[in-house]
Fold this sequence. Notes:
This protein has 107 residues and is mainly alpha-helical. The chain has helices at residues 3-21, 41-45, and strands at 83-85, 93-95.
Amino acid sequence: MSKIARRKFLQLSAVAAAGYFVQPAREARADDLPQLATDDPMAVAMKYTHDASTVDAASRANPAADQNCANCALVQGNDGETWRPCQIFPGKAVNAKGWCSVWAPKA
C-alpha cells in the first residue's frame, strides 16, 4: 500500500466516522414535547388552563368566549393537533383547548 493510498484511506475513514456520529437534524414535533402542567410556575404566572371553557370570559383582558390556544397567534404547529408548541412556553406543548392570559388573536 502506498503512502497516498493510506492517506486517502485515513481521510475517508475519518469522514465515515464523523458521518456515523453526526445525526441529521429533524424537526421538533409537538408529540415530542412534554405537556405543560398547570402547576408549572410559568403556567401559573400566565394563568394557563387546559380548558378555556373554565375561565370566566369577563375576567380576560380581551373578553371573548371563543379564546383558546388553537386560535391564538402565539401557538405553533398544525391545526387539528391536540397538543401544540407555544412561543410563551418554550419546550412545552399546550392543549389546543387551553387558554392563558397572553392570548392574542391570529391575524
